[in-house]
């Protein structure tokens, strides 16, 4: 994985690169210190729906590109995940295409065995995380998903799953003592004008 990251960073003009697994979890990254890891993890959640709707046949899509003033943002899908790249607008495209073709061939088997590098706050602080407690009851999660569907529509269950993955859990394994951060992550997806209203409604669940 390190060699692949180095090859991409060696493309003239590339500022940073992040590799994500299919579920949106961050597998590897090489960005300047100014780029926060938590922000990169959020990028995974934002781009994961794109991976779900793109054609499965790699021949049908090469990559997506966005222009931000003098920077370019690339989304390059591969088997098992994708690569996000930020570069200057002077990146030599023939070099980019050749490098990414090689990456698309070598990265999938590495992603299959890669672990998410997202840490819990306890791990980030160097502490040993506590043993997982009793999971949140399924009926409680269902009630919360229904409550949030008023504000998030049919995407509510999907957002719950993505926030749980970002925290390092599957939705059915989130401990009860992690309900508050789970809800905080979901509330962040609610429109600003409705956020206070939904926060008042979920108080009784925490």
Radius of gyration: 19 Å
Number of self-contained structural domains: 2
* Computed structural class: alpha+beta
Morphology: elongated
CATH topology of the largest domain: Beta-Lactamase
* Poorly predicted runs of 5 or more residues: 119-131
- Name the average pLDDT: 83
Residues in β-strands, percent: 15-25%
List the secondary-structure elements in sequence, H or E.
HEEHEEEHHHHHH
Any idea what the CATH architecture of the largest domain is? 2-Layer Sandwich
Main sheet: which strands, in order across? 2-1-5-4-3
Structure summary, number of beta strands:
5
Give the N-to-C terminal Cα separation: 40 Å
Proportion in helices? 40-55%
Description:
This protein has 2 domains: 2-113, Beta-Lactamase; 125-205. Helix content is 47%, strand content 17%. The chain contains 8 helices and 5 strands; from the N terminus they run αββαβββαααααα. The chain has a 5-stranded antiparallel β-sheet, with helices on both faces. Helix 5 packs antiparallel against helix 8 (192-202) and helix 6 crosses helix 7. The longest helix has 21 residues, at 93-113. The protein is elongated. The N and C termini lie far apart (40 Å).
Features:
206 residues, alpha+beta, Beta-Lactamase, 2 domains, 5-stranded antiparallel beta sheet, 8 helices, 47% helix, elongated
Write the layout of secondary structure elements.
Elements: H1 2-9, E1 14-21, E2 26-30, H2 37-53, E3 64-68, E4 71-78, E5 81-88, H3 93-113, H4 121-124, H5 138-152, H6 156-167, H7 179-187, H8 192-202
Antiparallel strand pairs: 1-2, 1-5, 3-4, 4-5
Helix pairs in contact: 5-8, 6-7
